[in-house]
Input
Amino acid sequence: MKSLEKLFDKLKPNFAKGGKYERWGSVFESFETFLFVPGHTTPRKGAHIRDAMDSKRLMIVVVLALMPALLFGMWNVGYQHYLSIGQDAGFMDNFIHGLIRVVPLIVVAYAAGLGTEFVFVYIKKKEIEEGFLVSGLLIPMIVPVDTPLWMVAVATIIAVIFGKEVFGGTGMNIVNPALLARAILFFAYPSKMSGDKIWVSGLDGGKTNGAGDYINTFGDKVVDVSSGATPLGQYASTIDLNTALQKATEAGDTETVTKLTADIAKTLSEVPSAWDSFIGTIPGSIGETSTAMILLGALILLFTGVANWRVMLSVVTGGALMGLIFNLIGANPYMNVPFYHHLIIGGFAFGAVFMATDPVTAAQTEKGKWIYGFLIGVIAVIVRVLNPAYPEGMMLAILLMNVFAPLIDHYVVRGNVKNRMKRIKVAA
Amino acid sequence: MQEIINIFIKSIFVDNMIFAYFLGMCSYLAVSKTVKTATGLGIAVIFVLVVTIPVNYLLENLILKKGALDWILGAEQAAEIDLSFLSFIMFIAVIASIVQLVEMIVEKFAPALYSQLGIFLPLIAVNCAILGGALFMQEREYTSIVEATSFALGSGIGWFLAIVGIAAIREKIKYSAVPAPLRGIGITFIATGIMGIAFMTFMGIKF
Output
């Protein structure tokens, strides 16, 4: 580190004003401040106000809060992999397999995103902003483990350019760049983003050999091909079965009715228990499976005051309430899913804790935060239950509310202005 | 009843005029600088849609459609008459006259809004969302005037949501460091695209 610092100090004059590489000055400075404390900090003596929470430290806290979910996610990737090929691997084997699969995703996301940011730093001649530190880690955590690396790179670059840089960079974006990247992947490459094969390492792209065995991309024989379905996928598949069942009932086809009823019961019985979903030993996107670890991250965020508790609470309330309403209607098996189960499967907890609370894209007013969060929860559960095309509604619900957050704020502010005007009139 | 609610919700979210069909973009882009004017124009569009589509529905089903004239000429003769080639001009005539009416009402009761909306108020007459609504009504063959009205109300509210949504975003990013070439219309197009992705949430939803 010392020698690196010396090297930077030696190179510095070249990039200063009038130096040889003046044009690259902003890029150089970005690298320097990324690695070292900038030289122009507040002096230790004197009555200066030192900001306790600059954006760099804010981002580091979020990255720390993401760590439990990420590490568990790595272990779970290995666990699901060895489960699918029927081997009993130790803790370290699981973790190392996950590490090998997940680290490339992280590296690619950071490289693609930071590369794009550096291009913009060079064009705009401004210092680099730290915003991507979190987004770059969020993106690998919300994609399936088998996502091809180039797709991650493409989606990251598009999201950084059109979600963030064109709006003026960190702090000025209207949607969460990580979510936008996920949405772009979802709509551009749907076959790699949904289904039963993508959630378990190596399962996607495998082949069936002559003997009828399914061989995964690592060349191992897969014992249980159906093991890769997520709880959301399993629940969603009951919708179609139920529609078919209703048709068969109307037609009076008793044979099909018995078969479909049995199918639905079988699918529902295969859904992992609430406890497994809470701990996270289920297939799913890398970081989203373990509600327990996400809660740990939430504690860090709340304790340090980085994330807003109002948003988290209202998202959970909205989701639970909508789940309860569906329980009361109970028109199909999916509607009968207990409301608390919605909160622990899929990306609900991850979205509520790490995505919805993004201070830039969430509503800015206190009252607005309640409305914003509540609607996220409600829409997420509505999309899950009523839209068989999208098994997961959390991503899209947050994206939609990101877009409408300024409008919510606008009306909240208008309302406040109106109230105060009334008070003035009463006083007068 | 369920069918009517279904049409209503579908036309707000799934078949949103702006985000699914990109209709009525010109006034959507031009009048979305502040939420206040956007609200005014949005309400005007809702009103015009709700009035014109049922009127056009009656026109379509009593005069223009093949065999629609049977209430005058009797079924046998009417079956040969198909006036649907006139639908464009008839729909536009209805829309233009109703927009005239709206203009007079707005000028009388909200002069401030009238001056803010400027040329875009009379231009509702050629707003593609309005004619588009009438043509969708024709194409989708709604079975009753209630269905057509609920479609009109839904489309109007969808358009309203879109324009106030983008207006709030534009107010928010007014002071952002948007690159100079993209300021104004450019960034609005990009934001609209992102809103379109967000609205895909509802695609394929079944009630």
In short: Chain A has a mean pLDDT of 84. The interface with chain B takes residues 124, 162-163, 166-169, 172, 174-175, 180, 183-184, 187, 379, 382-383, 386-390, 393, 396-397, 399-400, 402-404, 406-407, 409-410 of chain A (CB under 8 Å). The two ends of chain A are 67 Å apart (CA to CA).
